[in-house]
Amino acid sequence: MDKNNHYKKKTVRNNGNKIGEMIYYNKNLKKILLFSSYFIISVSSYFLGRTSKDKTVYPVIPNTLAETYFDEPTYSGIPYVVSFGDTLLDIVYSYESDTNKVQANLKLIEKYNGIDANGIYPGQTIYLVGVPASKLEEFGYTDNYNYFAPEVEVDLRIDFLNKVVDYIDTTDANNHSFLASVEEIKNDYADYKNDYVPGDDYKLDYIIDDLRDLSESSKEYGFSFENNLSALPLSEAVNYNAHKSY
To answer: Could you give the CA distance from residue 195 to residue 213 in angstroms, rounded to a whole number?
Structure first.
């Protein structure tokens, strides 16, 4: 037998790409040499490839659309009609007892309204800042969407998701599945409104559930619907309590 027949040439590949050749003696050490060569070349190629590629990292931005809350969600832009004898300090103390927060809110209200704290007068409408969720109803507002027709929550969630979609579209954090789901549920809601007949209300339940699921998924991108609730006037409430709370 020709001794040369014991020598073999082997092409070595990594991820389908040829990275070299090796020659081995086709007897006792063949398998050991082959395995060792593969291991050394593949591992070296792997780490070289890793160091030569930039890894894109997408940072999570918490509460991207929201203000920074204190112990509970707070709201700005809540209208208040000044009564005779009111002082701005008394008004703020009516919903906030922490002195530091009161002083901060006073300055923010002055800036928000373009007023001086000592210059308010009866009948004047000013807009409050930092009103906690638990105090909203004292000022005729609420962030509990169960007081309203379900379409109100649908519209607010779609508006929120549109902002999340805008964020995803302007970054490299594309998630085609998420974007497609948002578009699909928007189309379902449009079809629901266009084709509605009495008895179709159950379809809205499914739409709301899907919107809530998508809102929850938005946390992956640093957006929280709960931190972006809108305070709505109780005067527009219809005491609609059939749907689950958010």
So the answer is: 24
